[in-house]
Design brief:
single chain, mainly alpha, four-stranded antiparallel β-sheet, 63% helix, globular
Length: 461
């Protein structure tokens, strides 16, 4: 059970010791609640030993990572762990695991370091939506214009943020990676792409260029930096030391930017669009089923820490349509699990469990459900199912209102329901609110009706 921890350096040292020491750690990263370690060989008993540490909620082994669920103190613990690792725990990509695990692990390692930046930008967009609703003239002011472009800045320059974190993960020069990613969102390339979209034929060395643009893109910069890591290592190996500092960056840029514009970008963008298209087809054809699946099952990927892999699909929807439906159902699923934790807090006679349930429920307000899942609902099993059922019910009802989010929510939850507000589609916000109320109240009622095996207070202590 998580306790208040102040000696983060000591906790970090105990975690490192119990996973086999610094030499057994290939890299470290973090997300909202988890310390994510890539281990050469996970010790057989490490999971049990670390789970018993004060301040650790749970341990999950998934996606090629040893994930230590800590909660709100994860930032301090990660800093203490990184300080004890070579190069600050820079992720190493050369560890053996399945292709699927590597893809999922890469997405998590690349996206999670700046997830709060996207969340903050999404919240600012939500505030602007409320301001425009309360004061329509505000949209024409310079104040609105400034805050509006600030709120979209992290998304406009998302490839650069990806380039920074991906360069750390793949072990290449961060400045070369950033320059290559910046080239993808250069105004000059956008102008060229606009000319191509207008019907003009433009080629590069005889190869026709496409009109794909890369603002807010995720997959193209990730794949570009991945290949860049091999190209850079090749030139570092073959070029003489005297000219290496000058020629390596230039050759890398000259190769990777055109290769991405010609091949990597169009292929990866098309792939993300196809997956998003499949989901959108389901929403358009059978919205009830789409709502039931996302609202009822979304918390399962959260258990295994693979939920960030859906980000390219969501970003693709915002790029292509200016809205997304997936995050509306995500929000309802989050509130269902939040309500289940609160339901346990209301029913349990265990003082510690009530405290954890209430705390986890409050954390859910910010779209973070790991404390609720690991500390309460999944631990007791039935409440987790209750939260999923209530989330599915709420999402099904919301689907009849054709709900959408018109602003990106990095951490969907109660605070992001304002993202569903639109003067052109008022039913969207109403549907999300109704779905959230059903998920919250329904999960609390289900927990009371179905019940759970309460933990005796002496066992908890």
């Amino acid at each position: 059970m998580a306790e208040k921890i102040r000696d983060y350096t000591r906790l970090a040292g105990e975690i490192i010791e119990r996973v086999g020491g610094v030499e057994n750690i290939n890299g470290a990263s973090r997300c909202a609640t988890r310390l994510r370690l890539v281990l050469t060989t996970p010790p057989a008993d490490a999971k049990e030993k670390i789970s018993s540490l004060p301040g650790v909620i749970s341990v999950v082994e998934r996606a090629g990572q040893f994930q230590v669920v800590i909660g709100t103190h994860v930032g301090e613990v990660f800093s203490a762990v990184a300080a004890q690792l070579p190069e600050g725990g820079k992720m190493a990509a050369e560890h053996k695991e399945s292709a699927l695990n590597r893809v999922i692990g890469t997405m998590a390692a690349v996206m999670t370091p700046f997830i709060y930046m996207l969340a903050a930008a999404g919240m600012l967009q939500g505030v602007l939506i409320l301001m425009r609703m309360a004061w329509p003239e505000f949209a024409a002011t310079g104040t609105h214009a400034i805050f509006n472009y600030i709120s979209w800045t992290p998304f406009a320059f998302l490839p650069i943020l990806v380039g920074i974190t991906a360069s750390r993960y793949f072990g290449c020069n961060i400045f070369i990676a950033v320059i290559c990613c910046a080239a993808l969102i250069s105004p000059d390339w956008n102008a060229i792409a606009a000319r191509i979209a207008g019907g003009e034929e433009i080629d590069f060395l005889g190869l026709a260029l496409s009109s794909t643009t890369y603002g807010s893109s995720v997959l193209p910069p990730i794949f570009m930096v991945w290949l860049l890591s091999y190209v850079e290592r090749f030139f570092d190996r073959v070029l003489p030391g005297l000219i290496k500092p000058f020629f390596t960056p230039g050759l890398c840029m000259a190769i990777m930017v055109p290769l991405t514009i010609l091949v990597i970008g169009p292929l990866t963008t098309t792939g993300a669009d196809l997956v998003a298209g499949g989901y959108n087809w389901l929403v358009d054809s059978v919205p009830v089923l789409a709502g039931a699946l996302v609202g009822g099952l979304w918390q399962v990927p959260v258990i295994f820490g693979i939920h960030h892999s859906i980000t390219p699909v969501i970003v693709s929807n915002f790029q292509n349509f200016g809205y997304d439906t997936f995050q509306t159902f995500q929000t309802i699923a989050v509130i269902g699990q939040m309500g289940a934790a609160l339901g346990v807090a209301l029913v349990s006679r265990n003082r510690d469990l009530r405290r954890v349930g209430l705390s986890a429920g409050v954390t859910g307000i910010f779209g973070i459900t790991e404390p609720a899942i690991y500390g309460v609902t999944l631990r007791l099993k039935r409440p987790f199912v209750c939260g999923c059922l209530a989330g599915a019910a709420g999402a099904i009802v919301a689907s009849f209102f054709h709900v959408k989010y018109f602003a990106y929510a990095s951490l969907p939850g109660p605070l992001t329901v304002v993202n569903a507000i639109s003067p052109e589609q008022r039913s969207s916000f109403i549907g999300v609110v109704i779905g959230c109320v059903i998920a919250l109240v329904g999960s609390i009622i289900l927990v009371r009706i179905i019940g759970f095996k309460d933990i005796p207070e002496e066992v908890s202590e």
